[in-house]
Amino acid sequence: MKKIFLLLLLSLSLQANSAHLKPYSGSIKNPTISLKDLKGETHTLAQYQGKVVLVQFWATYCPPCVKEMPSMNNMQDKLAKAGVPFKILAIDMAETKAEVEAFVKRIKPEFTILMDETGSSIGQWNVFAAPSNFIINKQGQIAYTLFGGVEWDSQEIIDKITELSKQ
Amino acid sequence: MFIKNILLIISLILTGITSAKEIRGIELPSGEEVEIRVFPAKGNILIIGFACDNGKSKHEEATSESLAEDGIEVWMPDMLGTYMLPKSRSSYNEIPNEDLTHIIYEAISTNKEVYIVASGPDTQLLLKTAAHWKKEYPDYKDLKGAILLFPRLNDGAPEPGVEPKYIESVGSTTIPLMVLEGGRTPNRWGLNHLSAKLASGGSRVISKIVPDIRGYFFNRADPNRTEDIVTSQLSGLIKVSLFYLQESSK
Questions:
Q1: Residue B53: pLDDT over 50
Q2: Using CB atoms within 10 A as the burial measure, which of B137, B146, B176, B248 is most buried?
Q3: Structural domain contains residue A127
Q4: Number of domains in chain A
Q5: Are B76 and B51 in contact (CB under 8 A)?
């Protein structure tokens, strides 16, 4: 009886931690980005066609955004080692460069941080909460979305992105 | 001697503040009796604060006292405690609509101008009350408006790339609404969308962003300087909101 209870508890806790990438059901057909990174270099979504891209809207004041960043670093490593064409574009939601630079120094994200100081892309992408995540397929369309913090290096997500990279 | 005098003055001030609050019971149509913390004042404005934390918030009483000192009467009904409900969003639906509107009716019976105020998810209860007030008492004009501090009115979790869905009572009232949102919260990006939905019921909606503050800033353990200031000046924020609501009604 005790064993069954423990198994049940374990399965519930795994469910609670598992990520749920939802197939995108919204109306954005041709998403675009043209934003600068912290070094002033412009990145567009179009330049990453042929790769699966995680576009994340985040902010330094958002606790789940901060918590999941190490798992995003791991995810990027794992996919690179597996030879999966993949890119992360993490768009800061209208904070100042100074705030974000101080944050980067402390948390050390190893992926591309883009600055949207006017919030223009936030409106275009219908973002109303953080972290808001979009998985873009190799053709530049939104395949999946995910709201909230998750462990990005979970096998479930790695498998889904690997599968998407083959389409 | 000097210190003794200071302590005496402080204790007199504290005694004065404590005695400003009264506990009043109102019998509700459901048969329950709601306990209301009343901060009486002689002015012609009465605010009902739908705070659903049974007085646990350390700031709401100080804010109410400050408003009462400025002539604004405050009623704080214990909405969850009355029905022994837990602090959760689903509890709001358990509270009978007739009971909520009865509290408004009692407040209006004082012949003061009545406004309602709530923060965070408690704004769901506020809008539910306003929506049913409109249905039950369409001819009463003395519910003058509502202040929604940092409202959380989504129905379910937000979906990236999709317009948010709100609870049923959004857009179901005609009373003027003042909406305040923090500048350092993702919700600020939804403020225009929410305001438009609130206005779709016929309300005049005024929305403002309070710069440099995060969501639930008044309950945070690590407040920044601005959050500290705004928390200590919540009564000022409410008074400014009342001013906007009164101006919009002219």
A1: yes
A2: B146
A3: yes
A4: 1
A5: yes
- B242 phi, psi to nearest 5 deg: -60, -40
Average pLDDT value over all residues in chain A:
89
| Residue-range domains of chain B with CATH | 20-248 (3.40.50.1820)
Q: Mutate which of B163, B184, B191, B209 to test chain A, going by most A C-beta atoms within 10 A? A: B184
Domain residues for the domain of A59 are 20-165
Quick check: B186 and A24 CB within 8 A? no
List helix spans (H) across B50-138: 60-69, 79-82, 89-92, 97-108, 123-136
Are A89 and A109 spatial neighbours (Cβ–Cβ below 8 Å)?
A: no
Q: Which two tokens stand for residue B234?
A: 């919540």
Query: In Å, how far is A1's CA from the nearest CA of chain B?
Result: 31
CB-neighbour burial class of residue A104 (10 A; exposed 0-12, middle 13-18, buried 19+): middle
Split at pLDDT 50, 70, 90, the class of A10 is: very low
Give the count of alpha carbons within 13 A of A97, CB side only: 6
Q: 3-class DSSP state for residue A101?
A: helix
Which residue shows structure tokens 């408006």? B145
Q: Pick the closest to residue A38 from A80, A123, A95, A121 (CA basis).
A: A95
Nearest Cβ partner for B160 among A93, A119, A147: A147
Please give the structure tokens belonging to residue B224.
Answer: 């920044």
What local confidence, expressed as pLDDT, does residue B52 receive?
A: 59
For residue A157, is pLDDT > 70?
Answer: yes
Answer whether residue A112 is part of any domain.
yes
In a domain, A71, yes or no: yes
Whether residues A129 and B163 touch (CB distance < 8 A) is answered with: no
Which residues face B177 on adjacent strands?
B146, B205
The beta-carbon neighbor of A130 closest among B157, B186, B193 is: B186
Asked if omega into B121 is within 30° of 0 (cis), the reply is no
Q: Which tokens go with B217?
A: 């800033």
pTM score: 0.85
Answer for the pair B163, B193: CB distance below 8 angstroms, yes or no.
Answer: yes
Q: Position of tokens 């009043």?
A: B24
Question: How far is CA B64 from each of CA A71, A120, B14, B187, rounded to the nearest angstrom?
Answer: 45, 39, 15, 26
Q: Tens digits of per-residue pLDDT, A48-97?
A: 999 999 999 999 989 899 999 999 999 999 999 999 999 999 999 999 99
ipTM of the complex: 0.83
Q: At A135, which CATH number?
A: 3.40.30.10
Does residue B166 contact residue B194 with C-beta atoms inside 8 Å?
yes
